[in-house]
Amino acid sequence: MIVVVTIIAVFAVVALPSFTSSEKYQLEAAAQQFADAIRFARSEAIRTGNAYGVYIRDDLQKISVYRVDTGTNPWTPIYDVYHPVTKQIYTIDLNNDSASSVDSIVESFTYQGGSCTNERYTNFNNNGVAYCSDPNNVLMKQGALTFNLNSHFREITLNGLNGQVSVK
Fold first, then answer.
1. Bridge partners (DSSP) listed for residue 55
2. What is the CA radius of gyration of the chain?
3. Which pairs with CB-CB distance under 8 Å and at least 24 residues apart come from 38-42?
4. Fewer Cβ atoms within 10 A, N terminus or C terminus of the chain?
């Protein structure tokens, strides 16, 4: 009986790190997908010369890429941007993705010379500069999304002025 218990204990000790690394992989995959969506919106704005943006729903663990209709007042997001690989509307929903997982996402944004009433929308102009269009065009200084899963976390940072996106 002692031998059986010892063998089970050894298997438990060996299996435990694999669960932890799986969580880290799922967290990293989630953060990378969001970072890729932000980078894509910025690159499309630069490539096309038109405003693009991302709509971040931290409460739903979702991000969508949109193009901006600047002919309306206020500007209107149009969700007809396609993912370059899947060819589907560019929306990442972590609740429907078995390879990615987070417990929560926390947003933190700072703006230059004003405030933003709806930080969930981040637009990029044709130079790749990030801003909030609600209520006016207010330049973003810094944006951060912190992804948490159990005791692990990853942070995406967006430098509003140069558009650099990094995952830490």
1. 64, 121
2. 20
3. 38/63, 38/122, 38/156, 38/158, 38/165, 39/165, 40/65, 40/84, 40/90, 41/65, 41/66, 41/81, 41/122, 41/124, 42/124, 42/128, 42/130, 42/163, 42/165
4. N
Distance CA 22, CA 2 (A): 31
CB 157 within 8 A of CB 143: yes
pTM over 0.90: no
Structure tokens belonging to residue 163: 């558009």
Can you point out the beta strands (E) in 94-151? 104-111, 121-124, 130-132, 138-149
pLDDT digits (tens, 9 = 90+) for 33-53: 999 999 999 999 999 999 999
Identify whether the C-beta of residue 19 lies closer than 8 Å to the C-beta of residue 26: no
Measured in degrees and rounded to the nearest 5, phi and psi for residue 30 equal -65, -50
Q: What Cα–Cα distance (Å) separates residue 99 from each residue in 17, 20, 85, 161?
A: 18, 14, 17, 32
Residue 62 corresponds to which tokens in the numbers above? 């979702």
- Write out the two tokens for 84: 């370059």
What's the token pair of residue 55?
A: 């709509």
Closest CA to 75 of 2, 132, 130, 27: 132
Joined together, the tokens standing for residue 101 give: 């997982």
